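Q: Two folds, back to back.
A: First:
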Amino acid sequence: MSNGLAAVYFIVSLVATLYAAAVFADKLDKLGHRLGLPEALLGLLTAAGADAPELASAVAALTSGAKDTGFGVLVGASVLNVATMLGLSVVVCGCVRLRREQLVLEGSVAAGVALLVVLMMFGVLPAWAVLVVAVVLLTPYVAVVALAEGHVLSVRRRIALRRTMGERHRRMPLRSREIWQPLLLIVPAVAAIVLGSIGMVHAAIHLGHSAGMPDVLIGTLVLAVVTSLPNAYTGIRLGIAGRGSALVSETMNSNTINLVGGIMIPALFVTFASGALERADAIWLLVATVLATALLFPRGGIRRVGGGVLVLSWIAFAVVQAVFG
């Protein structure tokens, strides 16, 4: 394949993937909004749609044997998610805030999962142990969702848990068509995302190798950036709408999905490179997650200066990749 044909192939695959992911995430968010779901759940739904290109590209890279590229996509995209979804959103809209109860839950889970990846990369814990601990860590999150929406606890305790899940929306009457039409989009959207991601990965690897780029840089500086665009779009949209709870939930859940689905589970079957750059990338993601949580903690939330810090953190990350990659 010539470089010109690979570039065309990359652009076509990119456009198809990003469009399908944006439509998918938008439809899920609107459906959940009309169903009256809390903001944390809406953020999780949006993350599931917008995160699909990152995960699909990483899996496509892994199945093609480019393990370093797959790792770079997920870690690089996760660092970029913090910078664009949170940092850039704050720069654009001026402020993002949410209930501290939700922040503690979202931030601790995301930081805990990132820490597990660091421990795995340094050989402190094997892949199977990391996955087991991750499941244990995620169980309270699922429990909060189930108990807040169920009737097992007293009304007062359910209200307390629902505060942790963010603001709720008034349930709106829905016709059956308004439910099944978005659901019918799932199969073609996922198919477009998967096929587009496979095309992007093969074209990016071909172009990267022609330019002499290492596989990990193809992941962190090329594929991570382009596959993060749906997350950046949905994040900024939520920020402008003043939906800080959904925004933070989407950011943290996107990164958790990346690390669990794209690194921890595949690590049971393949061995990722654990060189100095890969270890530094994992630590950088952990620090960025903790930093974002700390900047969000004040009662007034995170403001433009804090958002700028998060954006600059990714720029520094990209420079490190370019210099030491």
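A: Second:
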Amino acid sequence: MKRKVLAVGIILLFIGTGIIPTIAQDTEKSSLPTSSGNWLYVGGSGPGNYTEIQDAIDNASNGDTIFVYSGIYYENIVVNSSINIIGENRDNTVIESKNKSPRNDTLSIYANYVNISGFTFQNSPRCGIFLGSRHVIITNNIFLNNSHGIHFYYLSKDYVYISNNIFSNNFCGIYLVQSKNNTISENNIINNDYGIRIDDSVNNTILNNNIQSNIQYGILFSVTSNGNHIYKNNFINNTKSAYFRLLSHQNKWDGNFWDEPRDKPVIIYGSIGLVFIPWINIDWHPAQKPYDIPGMR
């Protein structure tokens, strides 16, 4: 059984570590921990398996991989080492916050070079994943009914890659604060209050996401968030697809789909300054049909 799990885990690991796009690699070559370390198992029936994810993390070293069998795990997890954590199946490998205090996150990452894939993070009063580190890949997960699905904070300044996840029914799907040089790509971001919110963050790439049916904003830029690149996304049936305010008026929009085919440039409305002076950005080349994004299927 472990040999089968090992084979599946290696495939998932290669997928998770092999999809960093060229745009992320252009700025800095980096690698996550490889599978050359030890493998630890959580929730299975084999000898030596852990019953809690945190116990396995506490006994892991840099470069190790933790494989978590399907089940519901009620924990508040802290990651302080450079490891890979892989769930057996994202639909039924569930992590839910044990402590329901609004000051507790379900999973907090403080180490660089961490890979998280294959989980559902649900029902957190604060964050499904809180990021205070760099060089992290979060791929192939579901974030459901959290206050924030993923929250980048000011320490997560560089080279975080968020891909192929589903964010649904959160207050805010993805929230960046004082973060830069990160990539958010090929996610399905639906039915949240805020799909993506970006505060005081620069040089991030928002690429090929499906941003749909969000209650307040599909994407909101605030404070001083400039130099971000938003392209080839679907904006469909959001109350307001995109907005910017304060000093967040110098971002690049290109090739997005805006609810319907557009044969003219699309104006993105916003405001600048504390007195809310009206301002605009422009998507000069809007897409004529929605992009086929994996999370939509």
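Q: And?
A: The chain has three helices and 29 strands.
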